[in-house]
Amino acid sequence: MAKACACHILVKTAAEAEKLKQLLAKGASFHDLAKKHSLCPSGKKGGDLGEFKPGQMVRAFDDVVFKKAVLEVHGPIKTQFGYHLIKTLYRRSERRT
Fold it and tell me: Which residues form the PpiC domain (predicted)?
């Protein structure tokens, strides 16, 4: 089974997410923006969600983390929680021995 590690910034509106994405494109720190703007408790840790498996997050979130390019900022992604900017830090497959 695959595992991934990701961080995200959760905000209320797509417009706010777009503004933050523009700041990231200009070199702003994902960690710092998450601490300042994210509505998720993970914001205190710079948006770090740790490692998780497919199905542990909502589908729209999983689709980004397990299918899109690693180390790029994706979004805004809408879920029932709000709008996310998501950065997958790594993805790996577990091997059974």
Answer: 1-90
8 Ramachandran zone, left/alpha/beta (phi>0; psi -120 to 50):
beta
Distances (CA, A) of 4 to 10, 20, 25, 39, 71: 18, 23, 23, 22, 12
Measured CA to CA, the distance from residue 70 to residue 5 in angstroms comes to: 10
Q: At what angle do helices 14-25 and 30-37 cross, to 10 degrees?
A: 150
Q: In the structure encoding, which two tokens stand for residue 63, read together?
A: 């689709």
Whole-number Å distance between alpha carbons of 30 and 49: 13
Strand 73-79 relative to strand 82-93: parallel, antiparallel, unpaired? antiparallel
Q: Is the pTM of this model over 0.90?
A: yes
For tokens 């900017």, name the residue: 85
